[in-house]
Amino acid sequence: QVQLVESGGGSVQAGGSLRLSCAASGSIFSINAMGWYRQTPEKQRDLVAKITSGGSTNYADSVKGRFTISRDNAKNTVYLQMNRLKPEDTAVYYCNLEATIATNAEVDAWGEGTLVTVSS
């Protein structure tokens, strides 16, 4: 019923930048929030950044000042601009969608993940 398509991952040297995109489609009535999480083999999936329908944002302390989340409501797309990347940012990044779908049900959907690798 809901699909999330992520793009923009890849490999970059420390200090570089990447921009992730995630487009949501399907029987979406309204989007409550969209966000990005990341996971490594050693850690659980943790919040990186989140933006609500009202435009409020919150970030993990480790990325504040370096990452910026934004949203294009017309395209149901969320972006994560990542600057001054560090090797510890290396992870699989997952897009998350909290929405109400056409059946009036609440959904919490995940993308398949996109790998970000930062080399020192």
Number of helices: 0
H and E order: EEEEEEEEEEE
Share of residues in helices: under 10%
Structural class estimated from helices and strands = mainly beta
Q: Report the strand count.
A: 11
- Weakly predicted, low-confidence segments: none
Q: What amount of the residues lies in strands?
A: over 45%
Measure the end-to-end span: 41 Å
Largest sheet descriptor:
7 strands, mixed
What would the principal axes of the Cα set say about the shape? elongated
- Provide the gyration radius in Å: 14 Å
Mean pLDDT: 96
Short summary:
The protein has 120 residues and is mainly beta. Helix content is 0%, strand content 62%.
Keywords:
120 residues, mainly beta, 7-stranded mixed sheet, 4-stranded antiparallel sheet
How would you characterize this protein structure?
It is built from no helices and 11 strands. It is an all-beta fold and 120 residues long.
List the helices and strands and how they pair.
Elements: E1 2-7, E2 10-13, E3 18-26, E4 28-39, E5 46-52, E6 57-59, E7 67-72, E8 77-82, E9 91-101, E10 106-110, E11 114-119
Parallel strand pairs: 2-11
Antiparallel strand pairs: 1-3, 3-8, 4-5, 4-9, 5-6, 7-8, 9-10, 9-11
